[in-house]
Design brief:
homotetramer, two-stranded antiparallel ribbon, globular, three-stranded antiparallel beta sheet, 387 residues
Chain lengths: 387, 387, 387, 387
C-alpha cells in the first residue's frame, strides 16, 4: 500500500492526466456516441467522478453534499445495487450537463477528495484507501476508453478530423518472425505482488500446461494483408461458425479503420488517416478475425496462461501512452536479436484463446463494488494484459 | 412576386430569425439527435444553407466557391439526384463541423446570396427568384423543426432543462364545444393566390362534398383526459388495427411529453414541465390517437377538403410563433360568441382523415427540386395547415 | 336477397369449392406458414368455419355445441371484441389440430348450418341471413388467399413443387396499348345494386373527376422488362421515397416469383416455373413497383374512382378462377379491336393511386363484425376490384 | 473397434430406433419449426440420412445414385465445405419432401449402407468404418434432438397435445442434499478408452484442480421454487449481467415449460402437462438461471474438469431413454445412503461453469467432418455429459 500522501498525489496526477487527454477536443466532440459501445467523452469525465462520489464521498466525508442528485442516475454505468443506471444506449442523447458543468462536477469531487485525504481519521482512511485505489485504476481504464471512443467518433465523420495532428509515427523494419519455446508444466498465474490488483486477477493459482511456443512479436500489417489477399475474408473454413456469421452480417472485409483508396490500404489513427505501414502491428480486429488469421497461419491463439507465462518475467516496458504515439509501432525501434517475445507490453491488447472466467477461488469485491468485474465473466475472451 | 429588394430583405429577416431561435441553446444542444426523426440543430442550420448553395449559388453566381465540398454530402437531406445524402440516422454522430464552423458556413452563404441579390442580371435573377422563395419557405419549415426537435432533445434529458424559462403561458376558460355546419357541395381547394405556394398545394381543383360539421375549437386537455379515464388507451375497439399495434408496441398511455406525477398530469413544454391546463388544446398525439379519440367522442376527423373549406374564409390570425408562447393556448383569450371554428391558424397542426396524395393534375417542381414533396406522397396523413 | 334455399345451396357450393381447391395438396402442405402474411391452408379451412360458428351458430342455433373451445382462440383472426386472437405470426407453429381434425370441424359446422337453414324460425333466419352471406363472401376471399398462400409456400421450396401440373396456359399476342378517354365530371361510385356488398363498398356517393384516360389493357411482361432493362430498379428518381427504401432493404430486382436462369426470365406459377410469356400481364409487384413503372412510362396509376368509372359499365367477365388458368393470361384470346379497357375483371388485382379510406358516410357493420373492414382503413392502397 | 457385422447390426438398430421415436407422431407434427433452434422431425430424419450419403455412400459405394440432388442442399446442416446449407431458420417452410418421401430417402440410404457393409473391400471398409461410427453417434444425438424439438412443438400448441400419454412417472422422496469432497490435484480428463469418441473429447490431458465438493444429487424442483419464492427472478445481484439482460428481454419467470395454474406449478412433459413433483430434478433452465441459482444457494457450478472427475469412476447407469420415462425422475428410486454423487448419468444435462473450448492438443476430424465440432468452440458452455 502507498502512503496517504503518495496516494493523494497519485489521485491528482491521474485526474489531471484524464483532463489533459481532452485538451485537443472541441466541445461538440464530448457529446457524441457514435455506436452503442462508445460513450461520450463528457460521460467518461462524469462517470469517473461519480465513482468517487458514490463509493467514497457519500459515506466517508461528513457533510459531503451530493453535487447533483440526478447525476447519481445519469453517470451510474451498471451498478444495479446502487440505483437505476441510465440506459447505456442513450448516453449520446444527453446534451446536458454541458461540458463546463461536467468539469465543475469534477472540481467539486476533487475538492472533496482533497478534504478526504487531508482530514479523514485513520480508521476512516483505512476503510476507504483501497477503494480510492480502485477508483484510480478505474479512471485509468476510462482514460483508455476516452481515446478508444473519441477515435471512433472522429473516424465516423466523413470530414476525418484528427484528434491530434502532431502525434509521431515510428516506422520500423520487417522484423523476422520467430517462436519462443516454453516448457510448460506446472505454472502459477494471477497477481503475486503487494500493490494494487483487481479482484479478477486473484487468487494466484496453479495451472498445468503442455509445452508451447509463442511468437516473438505481434502480427504485422504485411502478414495480415497476405491473409486478406489469400481470401481470408472469403473462406468460411478458416472461421469459427459465429465468426463467419458476424463477418457476413457486418460485412467485414478488413480491420476496423482500414480503407482501400486507389489500391492502397489506409488506416485511420488518432492523428488522421495515412497509408498502412507494412511493419506496424495490425490492430482493431475482432476475436473472430484473430482466430481466423491464426488458423490460416497454421498456428493458434495462445491460452491466457500461456500468455501470462510468456510475459511473467519480462520488464513491463513498451509503447505505452506516455511515449506519445497513441498507435502501435513497428518493432525495429527495439532490439530483436534475442528470441524473447517482444511487444507484450504496450502497443495493443492481444487476443488469447481463453474465455473470461473466474480464477479458481475467485472472490468478488465486497458490496456494490462486487459488480465491477464478476458479473461480466461470460461471453467474453481474455486479452493479453499489460502490467 | 415580390420585388428584388423585398425578397432580399425577407431573405435576411428569415435567416436572422432562424439564428435568433438558437440563442437560448448551449453548444452541446446543437449536436444531439435524440430519436431518428430528430435532426441536430446545427444540422438544420447547415442544411438550410446547403439548400441555397446547391440550388442557387453553385450555378447562379459566377465564381462562387463551394464552402466545403464534403458539406454537399453531409447536409443533403434526401435529394438523390443531387448526390448521395448522408444517412439520416447518423446525423447525431457528427461532432464536426462545430457550431462555429456551421455559422461560418451560413455567413459564407449569406454573403454570396447578398451578391446574388445585388449583382445577378435580370435573366439570371428571373431564373432563380422563385427558387429563392422556395428556399425561404424551406427555411421557415426548418425553423419549426428546430423548435420541435430541440423540444425532444431537452425533454429526453432527465435533468429537464428548459429551452426558455421566460415563455408566457396564457390560461383561459372552458370554452363550450360547438359544431359549425357547412353545406358541402362542389367546393374548390388548393392554392388560389398570386404569391408563393408549394407544388403540392396546386392546382386548385373541384371536390364534391356532402354536408358536414366541424368543431368550433380544438380538443382540450380536459376532454382528452376524459377519453383516457374512460379507458381510451385500453379499448382496441376504438382504434385502427395499426394504431392498436403501435399503442401496444410503443406502450402509449398518454400524449407525448405527458407524465403523471403524484396523481397530476404534467406536460413538458419548451419552458419546462408544468401542470396540464385543462383548457389548453391537447397536442403531440399521433394520428392513431386522434382517430381513436374521435371515435370515442362519436365524431370523426375531418377530411382535408372539409378542413380547407372551413378555413378558407378565415383571417389567418392566431397563436403563431411571433406571439411568443411556443405552445398552444386555451381559447378564452379570443371571442367564442360566434359559431365559427376557431384555432384553425396557429396553436397546433390538426389531423385530418385524408392520406397525403397528389392533387389531381399535380406537377412536381422541375429538376432536383421535384424531390422536395412528390416522392413523399405515401403513408402519411394530411394535417390542417395554417396560412 | 336470395331465397332461403338458394342461400343454403350457395352455402354448400362455396364450402365444397373451398375443399376442392385443397385436393391437390399433400397433408404437409396444409401446415406451413412461409412468411408472416401467409396462413397455413388448414388455418384457412378452420377460420372460415370459425366464422360461421362464432357469428351464427353460437347464438342462432339452440343447443349448438361448440366443436372445440380452444378453436375459438386458435382460429380467431383479428376480432378483439370476440376474444383473444391467436398470434398471427405463430399460425405455422401449430401441428394440431391435424388436417383430418380440421375437416371434422368443417363437417360439424356444415351439419349445424344445415340445421340452421332447415329449422331456423323466420325471425331468427331473418336476423342471420345477411351474416350468412357475409360468411360466404368471406369464405370466397379465403379461397383466393388459399391459392395465394399455397403459391408462396410451394415457391419457397427449392424442390419447386407444382400445385397442379395440369393448368392450361393461354399464350396470346402483343396487343397494342391504347388509352381510353373518359370525360370525368360528376360520377357516382360505390355499390348500387340490390344484392350483397361489403360495408366498405357503401354508400354510393358523388365524386367530381377531371377528364382522364385509362390504358386499354394491363401492363405486359414485355413492357415491364423494358422498364427493368432501362434501369428501373436502379433509378431512385422513379420511386417514391418509401418505395426506394423498401427496394433497397428487401433487395428487389424483379417481380416476386421471377428469376433469371441462363439469361431468360422464369416465372413461378401454380403449375410450376416456366419462361415468361412477354404478352402476359405482369403481376406480383408491389404498389411501389407499379408506381415506379407508371412514372417511368410517363403515366400514373388511376385513382380508385377513375378505375371504378372505367369498369362501371363493363360486363363482369374475364379470366376468373372458373377458367382454370390460375394465372393472368395475355390478351389475344379476346377482341381488342375496340378501344374499351380490357382485363378489368379477372386476371389480376390492379393498383390504383388511392389510399384505402372510408367512403363519405361509411357505417361499419354492427357489433363485432364491425371489425371486418373498418379498422384496416389505413396504410393500404386500393386495388381495382373485380365484380 | 467393432467387427464389421457388429457395426452393421448396430447401424440398423440405431436407424430403427430413430424411426420408432416417430411412431407417436401425426404427419403434421413432422413439419413444424416452432422456434429457431427447433428442426422439424422430418428434417432430422432426412439430415441423418444425408450424413451417410454425403460422407460415405457418395464415394465409398460404386454406382451409388444420389437419391435427390436437391436433398444435398436441403439437408446439409452447416457443412460449408460440402456445399451451401439451406438456411436453418427456414426449415419449417418446407412442406416437401413429404414425410413419406423422407422415409423413402431413409430406405434408399439404408439399402445402400447394407450393400456397403456387405460388399465393401477391406481397404474401403477400413477407410470408412470410423465415419460410419461417427454417423451412428450423430444419429443418436439427433434422436435426442427429435425428442427435445417435438416437445417444444407440442408444448407451443394451446391444445397441449401429448407425445405419448403412456409414459410412466416415478415419484420419489425428498433426498437429503449432501456434498461429496474430492481432493483435486493433478487429474486427467478426456476420453481414455478404445472405443468411439468425438474429436472434442480428445486428447486426454492433465489438469490441476484445487480441492472441491460436488452435490450428491441434482437440484430439485422444491429447491428451485425456494429460489423463485425468494425473488430469484427479481434480484439482479444474483445474475450475470448478460443473464439479467436475457431474463428481462425474454421475460423469464420460471423454467421453460412451467406455468402456474390456480396457484400450483405445472410442468409440460412429453406426456402432457402435470403438477410439478417437488422431488424431481429441475430441468429446462438456461445457463444464466443455473448460475443465478447457484449464487443464491451459496455455491457455484462445477468446472468441466471437476464434473468429469466426479463422474470418472461411476458406472454409467441411470435414467436413460431406455427406461421409458422421457423425463428426469426423483432420486428415491435409487440408493442415497452413500455419499457418492448420483444422477450424473441420464436424467438431464448438467451445466458446468466452463466455456466450451478445445482441449490442449485438440485436432479436428480430417476434411469436411472437421466442421462437426471445432467451429463451434465459442460462446457456449460445457454441459455434463453422460456416458
Amino acid at each position: 500500500m502507498m502512503k496517504r500522501d503518495e496516494l493523494r498525489d497519485l489521485y491528482f496526477r491521474i485526474r489531471r492526466f484524464t483532463e489533459s487527454l481532452c485538451e485537443p477536443l472541441e466541445t461538440e466532440d464530448y457529446v457524441v456516441q457514435s455506436m452503442p459501445d462508445v460513450s461520450p467523452t463528457k460521460w467518461h469525465l462524469a462517470h469517473t467522478s461519480w465513482f468517487f462520489e458514490t463509493f467514497i464521498l457519500r459515506t466517508a466525508v461528513n457533510g459531503y453534499s451530493i453535487h447533483n442528485g440526478m447525476f447519481q442516475h445519469l453517470f451510474n454505468s451498471y451498478y444495479k445495487t446502487v440505483g437505476d443506471p441510465f440506459p447505456r444506449l442513450q448516453r449520446g442523447f444527453l446534451s446536458r450537463p454541458t461540458v463546463a458543468e461536467v468539469y465543475a462536477f469534477r472540481e467539486h469531487v476533487d475538492r472533496a477528495m482533497e478534504r478526504f485525504f487531508a482530514d479523514a481519521s485513520g480508521s476512516v482512511y483505512h476503510k476507504y484507501e483501497f477503494i480510492a485505489e480502485v477508483g484510480l485504476n478505474h479512471e485509468e481504464q476510462h482514460q483508455e476508453l476516452i481515446l478508444t471512443d473519441i477515435k471512433h467518433v472522429l473516424a465516423s465523420n466523413p470530414l476525418q478530423p484528427a484528434y491530434r495532428k502532431d502525434l509521431s509515427a515510428a516506422p520500423g523494419e520487417d522484423a523476422r518472425l520467430g517462436w519462443t519455446p516454453f516448457a510448460g508444466g506446472m505454472v502459477e498465474v494471477g497477481y503475486r505482488g503487494e500493490s494494487f490488483s483487481f479482484d479478477n486477477e486473484r487468487p494466484r493459482h496453479c495451472v498445468y500446461l503442455r509445452p508451447f511456443e509463442i511468437a516473438n512479436r505481434l502480427v504485422t500489417a504485411r502478414e495480415y494483408v497476405e491473409f486478406m489477399d489469400d481470401g481470408g475474408y472469403h473462406r468460411p473454413d478458416l472461421w469459427l461458425s459465429d465468426g463467419w456469421d458476424a463477418r457476413m452480417r457486418l460485412d467485414w472485409f478488413a480491420p476496423l479503420y482500414w480503407q482501400k483508396m486507389e489500391g492502397e490500404w489506409q488506416v485511420g489513427t488518432l492523428s488522421g488517416s495515412r497509408g498502412v505501414d507494412p511493419n506496424e502491428p495490425v490492430c482493431h480486429i475482432s476475436y473472430y478475425e484473430a482466430d481466423a488469421y491464426a488458423r490460416w497461419a497454421g498456428a493458434r491463439l495462445p491460452r491466457e496462461e500461456e500468455w501470462e507465462t510468456a510475459a511473467a518475467d519480462e520488464t513491463p516496458d513498451g509503447n505505452f501512452v506516455e511515449r506519445g504515439h497513441y498507435h502501435p509501432v513497428s518493432l525495429a525501434t527495439r532490439s530483436t536479436a534475442e528470441e524473447k517475445p517482444a511487444q507484450l507490453f504496450g502497443d495493443t491488447w492481444e487476443w488469447t484463446a481463453s474465455p473470461y472466467t473466474a480464477y479458481p477461488g475467485y472472490v468478488p469485491y465486497e458490496g456494490s463494488l462486487g459488480e465491477y468485474n464478476g458479473k461480466f465473466m461470460c461471453n467474453q475472451m481474455v486479452l493479453g494484459r499489460s502490467s
